[in-house]
Amino acid sequence: MYTCASCGSLHSEGTICSACKQHYDFSCSGVTEAGYRKLGDRKNTWKCPKCKSGSSQSGALSPQPSQLDRMQDQLNKIMLQLATFASVAEDVKIIKRDVGSLKESVEMAHERLNSFCDKVNAIEAQVVEVQKVAEEVPVLKEEINKLKQELRDRDQWARANNVEIRGIPLKKNENLYEIINRITSLCNFSVRKEDINYIARIPTRSAASEKPIVVSLNNRYTKDEFVALARKNKELNLLNLGFGTAGSFYVNDHLTQFNKELLRRAKSLAKENNFQYVWVKYCKIMVRRTDSSPIIFIKSEKDLQKIT
Description:
Elements (H helix, E strand, L loop, with lengths): L1 E2 L6 E2 L3 E2 L6 E2 L1 H4 L3 H6 L10 H4 L12 H93 L4 E5 L9 H11 L9 E6 L11 E5 L2 H13 L17 E4 L3 H16 L4 E5 L2 E5 L7 E3 L10
Antiparallel strand pairs: 1-2, 3-4, 5-7, 5-8, 6-7, 9-10, 10-11
C-alpha cells in the first residue's frame, strides 16, 4: 500500500513522480488509470503536477504553500476534466461513426421504400384495371349467353323442316323413300318425292342404337302436319309397317343434340315435381303442370329452374 503525497489516502495502484519520487493516487495525479497505463515507457518520465509547475524551487518570489495547494487542486480538477474530455472525444468519434453508418442505412432504406412505393403504385394500377375487367365480366357473360342461344336457335331453325324417325330396324339395300311412303300412308297423309329435300340415316353417339332416319321436307307446314298426324295414329308400329316383328317407332321433330338433352332433363324434372305434360311442338320444348296451368317454354338450362 502507498500513501498519496497530496491527500494522504492509502492506495494500491497509482502514479510515481520521476522527479520527486512521491506516490499519488489517480485522483490527485490528474491522470486516469487508463491514461497512465497508455503511457508505457513514458511512465518513467512522468511528473506530478507540483514538479511540472516548478513548485519544488525555493525563493522569495515562490507562492505560499496554501496557494500552491489551491493551485494544485485546480490543476488536478482541470486534468481530471481534460481526461474526461479525452474519453468523451473518443466516444464522440464512435458515435459519429455509428451515425454515419446509420445515415447510410437510412438512405438505403429510403431508396428501398421508394422502390417499394413504386411497385405498390404499379400493383394498385393493375388492380384498378382488373376491377374494370371484373365489372365487365358479367356483361360479357350475358353477351356470350345471348350469342350461344342465338347459335342454338339458328341450328334448330335449320332443322325446322326435318322429321326424325326412331325405331326403324336397319335393313340391307333398304329403300328409305318406300319406308316413308308406307308411314305416310298409315297416317292418311301424302308426301311426294318432290316434297322431300333428302332422306338419310344419321349416326348416333351410341353405336348399339339404331341409326334414326331424318327426312328433310321442303315445306315446314307439311312437316308439322306429318308429325301431328303420326303422333295421333295408334296404328304406327313395325308390324303394320311390314317388318314382321312387333315393336314401336316414333316420329318427332328433329331436335339438336342440345335440345334433346334439354328435353331429357325437362322430363326428369317434370316427373320429380308432378308436372303432367312435357311435349315438343314446332321444335319448341314445353311443360305444363296441369290442364289449367300456364305453358312454360324451355329454351335453356336456366329455364329448367322453372320446373319446381
